[in-house]
Amino acid sequence: MRIHRLLGLLLPLIALTWAGCDSSVPSVESRWRFVGGTTLSLQTNAPTVRDVMALPESAALRGPLLTHFSRVLWKLASGDRPMPPAALADGLVLVSDLADRLSIGETLAPSSSRREFAIAVQTDAARAQVWAKAWPKFFSAAHAARGEKAGEPKVLVRSGWVVAVSDSALLSPEDAFKALSLVPAEPKVVLHAELNLPGRPAAMLDAAVRDGAVRTELKLAFAEALPSKLPAWERPSVIRDPLAKFTAIRGVPAWFGEIPWLKQVAGNDLPKQLFIWSRAGTDSLDKMQTYVAARVEDPESWVEHAVAALKPSFTDDPKAAKLSGELAYDPERHAAAINHIFMPPRLAPFRDQDRPYLLLGAIPPTRSLQPMPAGLVAQLERPALLGYDWEITAENMAHWNLVGQVSDRLRLRALVNDRPGVRWLYQATTLMGESITEALVTGPKELTVKRKSTAGFTAMELTLLTRWIDGDAPPRAQSMKVAR
Description:
Blueprint: H1 6-17, E1 28-34, H2 37-42, H3 47-53, H4 56-78, H5 85-100, E2 103-111, E3 114-122, H6 125-146, E4 154-158, E5 161-165, H7 173-180, E6 189-195, E7 202-210, E8 213-221, E9 243-250, H8 253-256, H9 260-266, E10 273-279, H10 284-287, E11 290-295, H11 299-310, E12 326-330, E13 335-339, E14 346-352, E15 355-361, H12 374-379, E16 385-392, H13 393-410, H14 420-428, E17 434-443, E18 446-453, H15 459-470
Helix pairs in contact: 1-4, 1-5, 4-5, 4-14, 5-6, 14-15
């Protein structure tokens, strides 16, 4: 049977992969309701999703996706213990139905090292019997791997549903069915998810197919107050049309400080604003023009710290080298580059309208007399706008493909272009149009992120997803010398 449920594999497990809790009492970490890949493949409200799922490359991707998500489920259930082959086989049965069928579920956290599940899946009697065998085996193995006492995993079959709990002493199947039946079903909403993780913003996500597009809304409730007044945009004038992508973020330098390597390099000079853009065009030079500009106070020191942090990773000894190429630093210009690789990344300070920035890119931006589109600039004029992202997904994919190749070369990895994820990516993104994402401060402690897109994801997200599915490319042979 042709499998056309690529996106169906992703949605219900997004909530699971975000789970994590430190509470000493049972609490609901995440809760979701997903209509299933079969329903998604038949809907007409977002035809691009339907067409992507019908691709032969989507069918070829099903096996690797199921395997990855089975391992994710095991990791969450076992606390990242080694997964035995029998558990993988049972997990494949479970995630296959979670991908294809209507499911409602939640994760519970009785302790920091323990996670339990309650799931209801709409299915027939034959599949219910399969669950009755696979579910107890999978979670009994996970409990044994954890080495912790837990109640018996149980399965209940009722009125076209199979209800499964991983610890019946914590929550009975009957009580789970009552609780899960209360999760709301909204018209055209294909995924509803709620996340409540200690130390992180409480989140509620709705993804709907409507008016030819996927419309996603994520509400984040923070414990601390968000900025009551955002700083004025300081967009560098070097950003010019024609564009395939434009991203702008402002007012959250503390969030950048949570990225360890960035904090190490930046110190207290965290980016105040960040801009990312790609040039539209069909020739190879256009596709190489992707840039990041960060508004900082002392870009010269930034480059010096970056060079000092990266220098130990470069060596002439191919067995000891962690990065390929040659790290070069120009002390007069305070500029750095990694030479002797394809599309060498370059980091340099520049000033625009007397404001200091850092610029990361492979080649100098092409001079253009065309300003940014007025409609795009107008989007930034909203006072509550914290971040904005626009792209032509099909065209921007070429840029992210090149960025991925540079990353592989830099990390001494072979380039592999015949894996299922890559093959799917080349075909699927040709069907995709615009994606618009905006983050707005909608309350003293509330941030709302909305997206309208043809398939729900951006080019960068799809690239990262398929690279995860395919796995890292194999290292090049140690006998190969580092390019100089």
